[in-house]
Amino acid sequence: MMKLLKDFFIVSYCSVTIYIVFFARRRRGLSERFLNVVPIKYKLVELAKLSPHFDKEWYNFYLNLFGNIALFVPFPLLIFLVIGVNESYKFIFISFFTSLLIEIMQYTFKVGVADIDDILLNTIGAIVGVALMRGIGRLNIHA
């Protein structure tokens, strides 16, 4: 039963993540590549341009901000289940480079915006995931 749950989690998480980062409707139909290599600057510019009233633009801003974090919270568990890593710095290192690879692929295939902020937010999500795993205490995660 545990193997079935493990396999279900792995397949589900990977499928949802691949869909979100490569195939979601907002990712389709780009005619040119977009690249942001300046951390935080464009998020602040985007925030300053938002209307003073909460609307769809605010919703999209927060969805992008917190969605990038939430997307990678389960990632350390995936790494643990698939390759057996159990050291915090390795989870973070693998998460960072996986996010970097995703952004490179998005740029290469003109799918979404290749954004340094996404890499930072994904890595923050992985750090939260590691903290949760360590907090649960059932997994022997080393600092």
From TrEMBL:
Superkingdom as given in the UniProt entry:
Bacteria
Q: Which organism is it from?
A: Hymenobacter crusticola
Supply the Pfam families for this chain. VanZ
Q: Where is the signal peptide?
A: none
PANTHER family, per the entry: MEMBRANE PROTEIN (PTHR36834:SF2), MEMBRANE PROTEIN-RELATED (PTHR36834)
Q: Cite the VanZ-like domain residue spans from the record.
A: 11-134
Q: What is this protein's name?
A: VanZ-like domain-containing protein
Q: Does the keyword Transmembrane helix apply?
A: yes
